[in-house]
Amino acid sequence: MSKFWSPFVESLQPYVPGEQPKEGEFIKLNSNESPFPAAPAVVAAIKAAADGALQLYPPAESEELRQVVADYYGIEAAQVFVGNGSDEALGHAFNALFRHPGKKLVFPDLSYSFYPVYAGLYEIDFATMPVTEDYRINIDDYCALDPAEVSSIIFPNPNAPTSVALGLDEIERLLKAQPNILVAVDEAYVDFGAETAIRLIKDYANLIVFQTLSKSRSLAGLRVGFAFAQADLIQALTRVKNSFNSYPIDRLAQAGAIAAFQADDYFQETRQKIIRWRDELSADLKALGFEVLPSSANFLFVTHPAHDAEALALALRERKILVRHFKTERCAPYLRITIGLKEACDALVKALNDYFSATDTK
Ligand SMILES: *Cc1c(COP(=O)(O)O)cnc(C)c1O
Questions:
Q1: Which of 69, 82, 208, 214 to mutate to test the pocket of ligand 1 (most atoms within 8 A of CB)?
Q2: Helices marked H in the chain — which ranges?
Q3: Which of 361, 272, 281 is nearest to 323 (CA)?
Q4: Which one of 23, 171, 182, 196 is least enclosed by Cβ atoms within 10 Å?
Q5: Domains of the chain
Q6: pLDDT grade, residue 17 (50/70/90)?
Q7: Chain mean pLDDT for the chain
Q8: What's the cofactor (predicted)?
């Protein structure tokens, strides 16, 4: 804190990302990144884009990328917004769409911990809706909200950190029930087992969907994410973007992202492997006595009736494996474990086995 700070900065509560240790030091199962490298065609496209054109600003509105993505999903380019990671697209949406003085934004009590951070930054009043005892989002709770008091709703699908998905029929039921509330669906993990709501945007003016290349397309380091909605909502995001940074997506990112959508075989192959290893790890952890929530994501949310989650996280850390533990009340009994390569999943099971046999014989 210094006298030169704008006064509001002191009250900010910034997001705390998962630890990024030095390369090779740990098996990293703590940030939900892909264990696979980017597709070879993506790396080649980035190298080609670096050759000769970096002295020029990139296309400000990412027109070619937006067209490729629109074609991929069968929508219009005017229905696609590109952000520097979906975090940026989300941040612009909080500012441009969720900020209605006198009305609240509502999200689940267990959801992405960046939402309250953006709400704090943009001074948006919010309320949280508890997930059920079995950690599901109950759509009826949201259908019952009063549009005189609530401007917007946001939740991840599949939810994070719970990993549990909602069916598209449930989301459509909410869109129908609340035509005067904007519904934002954050689909960071959708490719691992849920159904995207993108095909509903043509029918629902109150829907906005977010996706990212960071998880299922192995490009967390490139920083590309999207918002999908009817064109009038996308225009609000574009107005905010062009009032802040006209060029958030650099030339390398635009070229890499285009190649990522063209490298569909690699995408299908890697995401299917992660789904298979997730289901195998889930079975292995259940055999060790863990309760595992039904996951549609690239991570598991697990608790053990006989072991404290924070102690488990520390024991794994000592064995050079990082998992994520959140200290908030409803998360505290749980660990969030990213699905790694098969060897990493097996190393996790072995480390847990070692720890359990060491503590049980004491
Ligand atoms: C990872 C994640 C994001 C952000 O992804 P980026 O595109 O890397 O900014 C957004 N929402 C949820 C729920 C996530 O887990």
A1: 214
A2: 40-50, 63-73, 86-96, 115-121, 139-143, 168-177, 231-241, 251-262, 264-287, 309-318, 342-360
A3: 281
A4: 23
A5: 18-36+264-360 (3.90.1150.10), 40-262 (3.40.640.10)
A6: confident
A7: 96
A8: pyridoxal 5'-phosphate
- Which of ligand 1's atoms lies nearest the C-alpha of 111? 13
Residue pLDDT, tens place only, 166-193: 999 999 999 999 999 999 999 999 999 9
> Which residue type occupies 270?
T
Residue ID of nearest Cα to ligand 1 atom 12: 188
Euclidean distance between CA atoms 135 and 266, whole angstroms: 33
Cβ of residue 85 lying under 6 Å from some atom of ligand 1: yes
Nearest CA to ligand 1 atom 2: 188
Question: In the prediction, which pLDDT does 359 show?
Answer: 85
Residue 165: burial class (beta carbons within 10 Å; 0-12, 13-18, 19+)? buried
CB of 188 shorter than 6 A to ligand 1? yes
Could you read off the pLDDT of 239-286 as tens digits, one per residue? 999 999 999 999 999 999 999 999 999 999 999 999 999 999 999 999
What are residue 183's phi and psi, to 5 degrees?
-110, 120
Q: How far is the CA of 356 from the centre of ligand 1 (A)?
A: 33
pLDDT value, residue 362:
52
Atom of ligand 1 nearest to the CA of 88: 9
Which of 212, 295, 338 best tests ligand 1's pocket when mutated (most atoms within 8 Å of CB)? 212
Residue 361 has pLDDT above 60, yes or no: no
Ligand 1 in reach of 86 Cβ (< 6 A): yes
Query: Residue 25: pLDDT band by 50, 70, 90 thresholds?
Result: confident
Instruction: State the pLDDT at residue 270.
Output: 98
pLDDT digits (tens, 9 = 90+) for 310-349: 999 999 999 999 999 999 889 999 999 999 999 999 999 9
Q: What is the largest CA-CA distance in the chain?
A: 65
Which of 87, 115, 185 for a ligand 1 pocket mutation test, highest count of atoms within 8 Å of Cβ? 87
